[in-house]
Amino acid sequence: MTINHVMVIGAGQMGAGIAQVFAQAGLNVKMNDMSQDALDQGLLGIEKRLGRAVEKGRMTEGERKAITELLSTTTDLKDAADCDLVVEAVVESMDVKVSVFQQLDEIAPSHAILATNTSSLPITEIAAATQRPEQVIGMHFMNPVPVMKLVEIIRAIQTSDETYQAIEDMTKKLEKTPVEVEDFPGFVSNRILMPMINEAVYTVHEGVASPEDVDAVMKLGMNHPMGPLTLADFIGLDTCLYIMEVLHEGFGDSKYRPCPLLRKYVKAGWLGKKSGRGFYTYD
Ligand SMILES: CC(=O)CC(=O)SCCNC(=O)CCNC(=O)[C@H](O)C(C)(C)COP(=O)(O)OP(=O)(O)OC[C@H]1O[C@@H](n2cnc3c(N)ncnc32)[C@H](O)[C@@H]1OP(=O)(O)O
Ligand SMILES: NC(=O)C1=CN([C@@H]2O[C@H](COP(=O)(O)OP(=O)(O)OC[C@H]3O[C@@H](n4cnc5c(N)ncnc54)[C@H](OP(=O)(O)O)[C@@H]3O)[C@@H](O)[C@H]2O)C=CC1
């Protein structure tokens, strides 16, 4: 199947990065969000990153201009009516995602693939909310999207081979590496990563070490590029908590219980880098 027109829903840190890599691969991309402000911020971030790429000599001014021309923004979901592929990257909530997919199912052309960038929720349940479950799939990008090479591809139990193949081909076109995984809570990436982050929060909660020292141990001792608490702030503490809740509920195993300190920070609105405060403070 030919994919030329793409819509990315949600212009947060993931959505804007996803829109950027599709445009860089030569596709027409509409970025959708309920908030014009989020769209403006998302577009500004893309323009800054492309500008830096030109400064560093990784891209010509002509290429930057061509990429920018492929990108547009809209607050109207009905603009998905001419899209071949929609990638949803809204908040990590089943209710919100199901509502978006049900609307898209009415709007998008019958051949269109509906993909979700969910980091943990069951793709099978999202697919079942539509009349085209065989064309629903998980396309899980990593943060920061323009830099990270992996896309985890998750089939719902209903996903057709044709849909899987189209998304695997598209991932390669984006110059990323696809890895196919089964539809289980947190897939592979967050089933392994998030309990480590949650355990790092417990070590702070129990007074074993400060956030700085926990991060120093994992950076200097294990060669992680970021310590787990810096990474948690980078991902978003709300997203980390949602994922832990999906693991806890999905497996019914107490080893996945979210740390009370993580809950407290999210309740305080300390969501990490995006809100200016998490385990660290940001300008
Ligand atoms: C939660 C989920 O569902 C799944 C997930 O995504 S989990 C999160 C997965 N991601 C990670 O684990 C990231 C871990 N951290 C890293 O790999 C690195 O710290 C990093 C790539 C983010 C930054 O690398 P660094 O070497 O420390 O910093 P820096 O030298 O400033 O950046 C390296 C490159 O990344 C780019 N970069 C850094 N942050 C960026 C961002 N937020 N967006 C886009 N590009 C970014 C920089 O522009 C730079 O590129 P150039 O050299 O080409 O200009
Ligand atoms: N953060 C990460 O590292 C990663 C996150 N993910 C997943 O990507 C998704 C998005 O995460 P992230 O980008 O971090 O989140 P953000 O909070 O940065 O962005 C989410 C965006 O979606 C918007 N939004 C919410 N509901 C709707 C809706 N119904 N229609 C259109 N837009 C909507 C939000 O608007 P508003 O702010 O106005 O509510 C916000 O702009 C989640 O499913 C997350 O699990 C996947 C990989 C990594």
TrEMBL record:
<feature type="binding site">
    <location>
        <position position="143"/>
    </location>
    <ligand>
        <name>NAD(+)</name>
    </ligand>
</feature>
<dbReference type="InterPro" id="IPR022694">
    <property type="entry name" value="3-OHacyl-CoA_DH"/>
</dbReference>
<comment type="pathway">
    <text>Lipid metabolism; butanoate metabolism.</text>
</comment>
<feature type="binding site">
    <location>
        <position position="97"/>
    </location>
    <ligand>
        <name>NAD(+)</name>
    </ligand>
</feature>
<dbReference type="InterPro" id="IPR006108">
    <property type="entry name" value="3HC_DH_C"/>
</dbReference>
<feature type="binding site">
    <location>
        <position position="119"/>
    </location>
    <ligand>
        <name>NAD(+)</name>
    </ligand>
</feature>
<feature type="binding site">
    <location>
        <position position="274"/>
    </location>
    <ligand>
        <name>NAD(+)</name>
    </ligand>
</feature>
<dbReference type="InterPro" id="IPR008927">
    <property type="entry name" value="6-PGluconate_DH-like_C_sf"/>
</dbReference>
<feature type="domain" description="3-hydroxyacyl-CoA dehydrogenase C-terminal">
    <location>
        <begin position="186"/>
        <end position="282"/>
    </location>
</feature>
<dbReference type="GO" id="GO:0070403">
    <property type="term" value="F:NAD+ binding"/>
</dbReference>
<feature type="domain" description="3-hydroxyacyl-CoA dehydrogenase NAD binding">
    <location>
        <begin position="5"/>
        <end position="183"/>
    </location>
</feature>
<keyword id="KW-0520">NAD</keyword>
<dbReference type="InterPro" id="IPR006180">
    <property type="entry name" value="3-OHacyl-CoA_DH_CS"/>
</dbReference>
<feature type="site" description="Important for catalytic activity">
    <location>
        <position position="140"/>
    </location>
</feature>
<dbReference type="Pfam" id="PF02737">
    <property type="entry name" value="3HCDH_N"/>
</dbReference>
<feature type="binding site">
    <location>
        <begin position="10"/>
        <end position="15"/>
    </location>
    <ligand>
        <name>NAD(+)</name>
    </ligand>
</feature>
<keyword id="KW-0560">Oxidoreductase</keyword>
<feature type="binding site">
    <location>
        <position position="33"/>
    </location>
    <ligand>
        <name>NAD(+)</name>
    </ligand>
</feature>
<dbReference type="GO" id="GO:0016616">
    <property type="term" value="F:oxidoreductase activity, acting on the CH-OH group of donors, NAD or NADP as acceptor"/>
</dbReference>
<dbReference type="InterPro" id="IPR036291">
    <property type="entry name" value="NAD(P)-bd_dom_sf"/>
</dbReference>
<comment type="similarity">
    <text>Belongs to the 3-hydroxyacyl-CoA dehydrogenase family.</text>
</comment>
<protein>
    <submittedName>
        <fullName>3-hydroxybutyryl-CoA dehydrogenase</fullName>
    </submittedName>
</protein>
<dbReference type="GO" id="GO:0019605">
    <property type="term" value="P:butyrate metabolic process"/>
</dbReference>
<dbReference type="InterPro" id="IPR013328">
    <property type="entry name" value="6PGD_dom2"/>
</dbReference>
<feature type="binding site">
    <location>
        <position position="92"/>
    </location>
    <ligand>
        <name>NAD(+)</name>
    </ligand>
</feature>
<dbReference type="InterPro" id="IPR006176">
    <property type="entry name" value="3-OHacyl-CoA_DH_NAD-bd"/>
</dbReference>
<dbReference type="Pfam" id="PF00725">
    <property type="entry name" value="3HCDH"/>
</dbReference>
